[in-house]
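User: quick one, sequence for these tokens?
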């Protein structure tokens, strides 16, 4: 008989993936403890932009496309319920966004990229310069045209992760502060975790959702996984007005007014190890990109500048599945972790309980490819 004092599952990491997995397993009736060494959503999951965009990203079009489409549906189904249950305003909203063309070549690129969108039912509209400036007058008059995406959504990533954690606790889940230093072996299988303090927590299954730190050999007994941190920075600006209500993107640069009024500009892709400090070089790069989109932002005032780390796998795709008997990883969501969190949590639940996920996990996500 199961020892009722022990949790069925331990989740390592209180980012969006750890919290989503914890909630799903608790909903399936498991007793679950989540172990986080800093605070819930204190890294990428609390600082991400929060875009739910199924039209682009690693593996799109490709293996991530059906998962991304289902993920948007899952957010639309589940987030309002999470919000009602927890009282936390997740900020799920339709967020039409514009991909901008600054040159005729950019415009050709947008037409090329759009070829497969109708087959997936994505709602979009090509815009000429005049139409573009009618929609967003703050955009540079140099713009040639663009595309308006109506299939994009957003959440507040910090509140979303917090709502997952809160709903988890309401189902009896336990959140513990502590740093996991190793996996506890029981013969051939993993039977729990060892904390830095030396304390051992036993469990039937361990789910390792420790973000970019999973690839660092920090957790003794976890196989080396090719997961690295890719740093991204975002700046929040005070810029009075109501314009820039659409997120406007050119390549890696974007400008968007968020609910609450601040304008967010981003972002960078930096290989900087585990450094989570914002830099002046990134600030200059982000500003150059933002001013090329909306020159009026020159007068804006910086309110906040954050940096955080995307857990990114060697091939850019998520990494999910058993690494040993009794141990599962949920990681490598890169720039899409907020979007994919509900679906990845379903994949983990399917592995643990056999309850079928509402979209099949692509074979390309299987951690086995790196073992
Ligand atoms: C600038 C930026 C913008 C982004 N924008 C978007 C977006 O618009 N849409 C989108 O879908 N995604 C976006 N992302 C990506 C998204 O933020 C990540 O994919 C996601 O947050 C990763 O979640 P995670 O739970 O895997 O990792 P993390 O959020 O890094 O969480 C891992 C947690 O594990 C804990 N931990 C690590 N090791 C241990 C240990 N040994 N013991 C205990 N705890 C441990 C850490 O403290 C941390 O809290 C963005 C990322 C960045 C950087």
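Assistant:
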């Amino acid at each position: 008989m199961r020892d009722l004092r022990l949790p069925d599952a331990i989740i390592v990491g209180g980012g969006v993936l750890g919290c989503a997995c914890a909630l799903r397993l608790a909903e399936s009736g498991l007793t679950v403890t989540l172990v986080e060494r800093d605070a819930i959503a204190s890294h990428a999951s609390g600082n991400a932009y929060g875009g739910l965009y199924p039209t682009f990203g690693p593996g799109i079009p490709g293996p991530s496309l059906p998962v991304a489409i289902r993920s948007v549906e899952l957010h639309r189904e589940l987030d309002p319920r999470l919000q009602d249950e927890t009282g936390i305003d997740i900020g799920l909203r339709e967020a039409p966004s514009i991909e901008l063309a600054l040159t005729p070549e950019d415009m050709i690129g947008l037409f090329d990229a759009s070829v497969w969108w109708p087959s997936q039912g994505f709602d979009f509209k090509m815009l000429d310069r005049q139409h573009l400036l009618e929609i967003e007058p703050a955009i540079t008059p140099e713009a040639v045209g663009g595309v308006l995406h109506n299939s994009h959504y957003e959440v507040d990533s910090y509140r979303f992760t917090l709502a997952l954690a809160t709903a988890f606790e309401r189902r009896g889940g336990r959140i513990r502060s502590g740093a996991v230093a190793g996996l506890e072996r029981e013969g051939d299988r993993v039977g729990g975790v060892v904390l830095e303090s030396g304390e051992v927590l036993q469990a039937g299954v361990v789910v390792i959702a420790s973000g970019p730190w999973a690839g660092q050999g920090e957790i003794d007994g976890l196989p080396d996984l090719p997961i690295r941190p890719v740093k991204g920075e975002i700046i929040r600006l005070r810029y009075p007005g109501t314009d820039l209500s659409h997120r406007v993107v050119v390549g890696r640069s974007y400008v968007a007014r968020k609910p609450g009024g601040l304008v967010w500009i981003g972002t960078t892709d930096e290989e900087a190890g585990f450094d989570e400090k914002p830099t002046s070089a990134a600030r200059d790069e982000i500003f150059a990109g933002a001013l090329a989109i909306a020159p009026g932002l020159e007068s804006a005032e910086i309110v906040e500048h954050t940096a955080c780390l995307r857990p990114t796998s060697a091939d850019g795709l998520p990494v999910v599945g058993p690494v040993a008997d009794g141990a599962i990883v949920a990681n490598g969501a890169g720039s899409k972790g907020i979007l994919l969190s509900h679906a990845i949590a379903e994949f983990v639940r399917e592995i643990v309980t056999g309850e079928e996920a509402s979209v099949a996990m692509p074979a390309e996500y299987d951690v086995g490819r790196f073992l």
